[in-house]
């Protein structure tokens, strides 16, 4: 019997939570008996070639800016030429164009995975698009209960939605045993206390609050320094804020990194200051590395983290409370060690192996439907 053919369609494979998860997921689906390919809608991105080097065939659609009907026809041709059994789209743009093409190509089964809280951006466009394309959707996968609830608020039937949490490879993350030397190799100050943020420089990630909490810490402790790993449209504004706060020399903006593990490994604390977070995979990666985490009480963080057990949770957009939480972890006592131990237990619930098993079960269930 031939292996079921699955095409994953995503807007790009730049470095990000959804993209990194997908890169880890697809080789495991091959091991579970599926023939898996990836197609990028807008841009290949930094993760495209490493993925294809692992034996996953890749395709580039080349969608043009604005309304591009040719995207549908190129996707239709790809789906028909490859005789795809299941199309799995990721996020709204890929879900919109992919489902249109699947209708024309008569692709047997369509899954759309939603990685962000529905309605956070372009709420009207997303609501209308998802409603119109609901008949072309066999299953919606939400990466968290928060995402599931948001989809139901937008009018999606609860029975159409299944939660499959994102997952990580815990073994890929380890706290550095020689942090001074590793920091030096990364171009960081080898001494002092290092507070990090890892994420896209976009408004929902709360980077301005991170800069402000760093200013509070630095003014009271000359040994504190910071590093922000990521890029995006808000980066210049956050750098300007650091200059205005007088701490530009004490924090580093190092840009996007295809592998964040070495950067997490040298931190003393990771701060996740998001004002909206659908899942929060970087917090789990830090826990796997044995790094204590401070995160905000929002959406996905509330689902995967547990205040006082494996992380400290604080109100969003409150640099004073964030700074106080960091001070608690840096101070005397056993709190940091307790959270590290709790974090290592917590990540065992969110492995990429579990994620792959649930996707494989879903695909088999869909293929068995009449």
What would you say this structure looks like, in words?
43% of the residues lie in helices and 18% in strands. The chain has 370 residues and is of the alpha/beta class. The strands form two sheets. Strands 3-2-1-4-5-6-7 form a seven-stranded parallel beta sheet, sandwiched between helices. Helix 11 (281-288) links the parallel strand 11 (269-272) and strand 12 (293-296).
Structural features:
370 residues; alpha/beta; Rossmann fold; 7-stranded parallel beta sheet; 6-stranded parallel beta sheet; 15 helices
Q: What is the fold's blueprint, element by element?
A:
Elements: E1 5-12, H1 17-31, E2 35-43, H2 48-53, E3 58-60, H3 69-82, E4 86-90, H4 92-105, E5 109-114, H5 123-132, E6 139-142, H6 145-153, E7 161-163, H7 179-185, E8 193-198, H8 207-220, E9 224-229, H9 235-244, E10 251-255, H10 261-265, E11 269-272, H11 281-288, E12 293-296, H12 299-304, E13 312-314, H13 319-330, H14 335-347, H15 352-368
Parallel strand pairs: 1-2, 1-4, 2-3, 4-5, 5-6, 6-7, 8-9, 8-11, 9-10, 11-12, 12-13
Helix pairs in contact: 1-15, 3-4, 8-9, 8-13, 11-14
């Amino acid at each position: 019997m031939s292996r079921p053919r699955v095409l994953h369609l995503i807007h790009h494979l730049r470095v990000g939570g959804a993209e990194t998860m997908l890169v880890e997921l697809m080789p495991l689906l091959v091991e579970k008996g599926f023939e898996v390919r990836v197609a990028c809608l807008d841009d290949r991105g930094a993760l495209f070639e490493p993925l294809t080097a692992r034996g996953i065939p890749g395709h580039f659609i080349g969608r043009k800016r604005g309304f591009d009907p040719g995207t549908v026809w190129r996707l239709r041709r790809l789906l028909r030429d490859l005789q795809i059994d299941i199309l799995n789209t990721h996020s709204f743009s890929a879900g919109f164009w992919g489902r249109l093409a699947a209708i024309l190509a008569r692709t047997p089964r369509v899954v759309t995975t939603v990685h962000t809280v529905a309605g956070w951006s372009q709420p009207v466009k997303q609501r209308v698009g998802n409603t119109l394309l609901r008949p072309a959707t066999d299953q919606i996968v939400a990466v968290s209960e928060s995402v599931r609830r948001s989809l139901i608020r937008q009018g999606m039937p609860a029975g159409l939605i299944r939660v499959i949490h994102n997952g990580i490879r815990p073994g890929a993350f380890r706290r550095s045993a020689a942090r001074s030397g590793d920091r030096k190799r990364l171009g960081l100050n080898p001494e002092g206390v290092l507070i990090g943020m890892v994420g896209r420089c976009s408004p929902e990630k709360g980077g301005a609050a991170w800069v402000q909490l760093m200013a509070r810490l630095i003014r009271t402790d000359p040994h504190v320094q910071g590093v922000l790993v990521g890029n995006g449209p808000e980066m210049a504004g956050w750098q300007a804020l650091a200059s205005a706060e007088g701490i530009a020399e004490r924090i580093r903006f190092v840009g996007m990194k295809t592998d964040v593990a070495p950067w997490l490994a040298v931190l003393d604390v990771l701060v996740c200051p998001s004002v909206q977070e659908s899942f929060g995979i970087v917090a789990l990666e830090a826990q796997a590395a044995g790094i204590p985490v401070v995160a905000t009480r929002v959406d996905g963080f509330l689902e995967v983290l547990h205040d006082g057990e494996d992380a400290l949770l604080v109100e969003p957009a409150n640099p004073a409370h964030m700074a106080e939480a960091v001070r608690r972890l840096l101070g005397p006592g056993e709190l940091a060690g307790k959270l590290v131990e709790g974090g290592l237990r917590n990540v065992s619930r969110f492995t990429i192996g579990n994620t792959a098993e649930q996707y494989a079960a879903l695909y088999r269930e869909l293929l068995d439907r009449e």
